[in-house]
Amino acid sequence: MFEKVLIASRGEIALRIHRACREMGINTVAVHSTADAHAMHVRLADEAVCIGPPAAADSYLNIPAIISAAEITGAEAIHPGYGFLSENANFAKIVAAHGITFVGPTSEHISLMGDKIAAKETVKRLGIPVVPGSDGGVTTEEEARRVSDEIGYPVIIKAAAGGGGRGMKVAQTAEDVGTALSAARTESKAAFGDDAVYIEKYLGKPRHIEVQILADSHGNVVHLGERDCSLQRRHQKVLEEAPSPALNASQRAEIGERVSKAISGLGYLGAGTIEFLYENGEFYFIEMNTRLQVEHPITEAITGIDIVREQLRIADGAPLSFTQDDITFTGHAIECRINAEDPNTFVPMPGQITEYHAPGGLDVRVDSAIYSGYKVPPYYDSLIAKLVVRGGNRNECIMRLRRALEEYVIGGVPTTLDVHRALISNADFQNGSYDIHWLENFIANRE
């Protein structure tokens, strides 16, 4: 096993990876910007290296600085966490070229799945159902109209290199296609440096279901069930739960086995997540994330499997420590993403934490790197904590989550805690009756 791992991330995920490493007897190296000099992951790591000024482009996205930090400290592997360089194929390639192990898939697979058009074509060949749409990219309004007419309206035009809801525009009718195409291409070019787009059928009231997989270098592939990530605002996940209230055991097993078979055929290595839209009993592939997900703790809660630990073992060449038959799904888990944001406008609100009390008790987990006196910097994502609660069943989980949210105290900066308190008290949520559009309506009515 590795003796030293560099963690190329920040915040709660850097701390999460550090903890897994320490439990495995692995020393850690934290990299940080000057703004994060007093961050918790920096304080707890065995070594820390400053890699630049506050701006992410000059620090956490600074590949030469990160590689230099690894070489100076003698780190044998780099774990990218999520965000920043975690799905940057060039970074993975450079890491490998320097004789350092990248804790993740190959650069080829990152590149393949980062291209939404190529990813869709690949998984379709491997037997995973996809949303009806164009066979590849579309460039002209005439072509876009022809494809849209064949699919049927409404359609959604999406950036091939997209993510986070950027470069996505809906055309309700044929008259909307030209405007939507132009807007999607312009937004995609500005956000990703690439104006390639494709077209898919726009589903009316789907759920967002994702399947977690792990694959080692010995040909073993397992799935760890699904997560329901339908509660989103502006295409950003707010609350996730596992298992999904919309699926039964047979549906779970069927889609899991289908995904595992496809990933095996791909020759994939490491952790990955296949994301679907689910409507009227049918699954439609939308993308694959070739990294650790923000919401991985709820899968850990119902399986008892440490996903980060398995990532490190796989990267070191070890086989998975379990088979599919060894995996059992027990209970129900929900994760609330707590952001330092105005709870009404959702505008990021950085500042100093003046008081902090995390909830506790049976099956309550808080992944956070903040503390009383910590200054939330204005340069990065506003996520400051993840509250993860498990119960014997969904109702018990919701009741425990309600209690945990009541206990949670974060002073000094506005947070979205009250949004979650209101959300879990809503009858539709309690009944599991929601889709990917539900939260937007809930928030609008709440305002």
Description:
The protein is α+β, with helices and mostly antiparallel strands and 447 residues long. It folds into 3 domains: 82 residues, Rossmann fold, CATH 3.40.50; 70 residues, 2-Layer Sandwich (Dna Ligase, domain 1); 240 residues, D-amino Acid Aminotransferase, Chain A, domain 1. 34% of the residues lie in helices and 27% in strands. The chain is built from 15 helices and 20 strands. The strands form 5 sheets. Strands 13-12-9-10-11-14-19-17 form an 8-stranded antiparallel β-sheet, sandwiched between helices. Strands 3-2-1-4-5 form a 5-stranded parallel β-sheet. Strands 7-6-8 form a 3-stranded antiparallel β-sheet. A hairpin with a 2-residue loop joins strand 10 and strand 11. Helix 4 runs antiparallel to helix 5. It is globular and about 60 Å long. The model has no long low-confidence stretch (mean pLDDT 96).
Number of strands: 20
Can you tell me the overall shape?
Answer: globular
Structural class: alpha+beta
Let me know the largest β-sheet: 8 strands, antiparallel
